[in-house]
Amino acid sequence: MSNNGKLAEKLQMKKNNIFETADKEKIKLIFDFSEEYKMFLDKAKTEREATDFAINLAKENGFTEYRLGERLNSGDKKYYNNRGKSLYIFKIGSRPLDSDGIHILAAHIDSPRIDLKQVPLYEEGGMAFFKTHYYGGIKKYQWTAIPLSLHGVIIKKDGSEIKIRIGDNAGDPVFYINDLLPHLSQEQNQKPLSNAISGESLNILVGGMPLKEGDEEGSVKLNILNILNEKYGITEEDFISAELSCVPAFNARDIGFDRSLIGAYGHDDRVCAYPLLRAITDSSSDKTVLGVLADKEETGSLGNTGMQSMLLLDIITEISNTLGYSPISVRAASKCLSADVNAAYDPNFPDVYEKRNSAMVSCGTTMSKYTGARGKSGTSDASAEFVGYVRKLFAENGVQWQTSELGKVDLGGGGTVAMYIANLNIDTVDLGVPVISMHAPYEVISKADLYSTYEAFKAFI
Ligand code: MN
Ligand code: MN
User: Fold this and answer.
1) Which of 191, 223, 248, 355 has the most CB atoms at less than 10 Å from its CB?
2) pLDDT averaged over the chain?
3) Nearest bound ligand to CA 433?
């Protein structure tokens, strides 16, 4: 090697593709973990299903249900089920909480999708549809003309709950949002992408067969209500107390000849939620660790299942009090990885990225010291000291990772839950998997980045 080469190696920073340096054994670890992740993706397409999955995994690993106010001891393994839509999973360690704090990992388990309105069902043109109000930041045109499955709950008049999951098993019917044929799209084609499909045209096709004896208006709708009544015992009014969502009916698949990538609905942010769960349930750390699976991130983290709720503060306070610590000093000593996805650099759209500060696919989990755009607006911005702490930890544990921000300064932007945790006086930085086509019905991630995120979480807790 030339002198310049040696000097460059010593002084210059370089991003490395994990697959390039991984040995056979490591690649097997990466691929095996990915198979388990894909099973999670197919089982848990909504926050409710992800919470159910997480509770089962927690129970299998000896965690028991926590009730607020319950006494806790070192060694306890607990989960707190927040209304079936968000989960807190924690382990009480043996280190002093006022100096070591709680090591927190926070990811979200809601993903962009199409929610039903409370009066959804109507009939027109011989077809029955559900009216919808989409959830989170979607490009509406991407959600037409693809198979959709229906997920959620209906609370009936008597208070009983019906769980709905139709369209994900082979043999199930699926649902659909109509789009215009190209032959009649001349006018639509002239519209900007954001207006080509309106929110009110995202109607879900749910049937087209009238009741036998009635050819009067409304009999396709009546037939659907009749089918739903026979199957679930519900009437039209029961939709008012329901939470029903349409998500893509695709399951997770390997992408590419080399199978290095995974395509799936809702990697954002289940690709962080899954390694979070695994890191905590696999860990035998003596630290006190807390994992949060939050709801409502995609709509602003509001409400009692979102990250802005008081519940995180309450749980830290309860843990501190029962163990005899001041919750204020525990928070001051606590640390958090806000585990959310980032945009992977996409060579098909190079104009929106600043390449030197973009996350590259397969180069590892990516840290964003700050989010926001146009003047770092809306970011908590981690301190250099905390980034230094995490960096040292990753170096000591052989975690391959990278650093990035989301897109160009004047273009980019996208918040995470980091600021809500940082506001509690907890050192927090964003870390997670780079995603291609984020918020599309089918997103893509690298298996190497998934595994790197798992390794990063294990090192942190
Ligand atoms: Mn996210
Ligand atoms: Mn998102």
Assistant:
1) 248
2) 96
3) 1
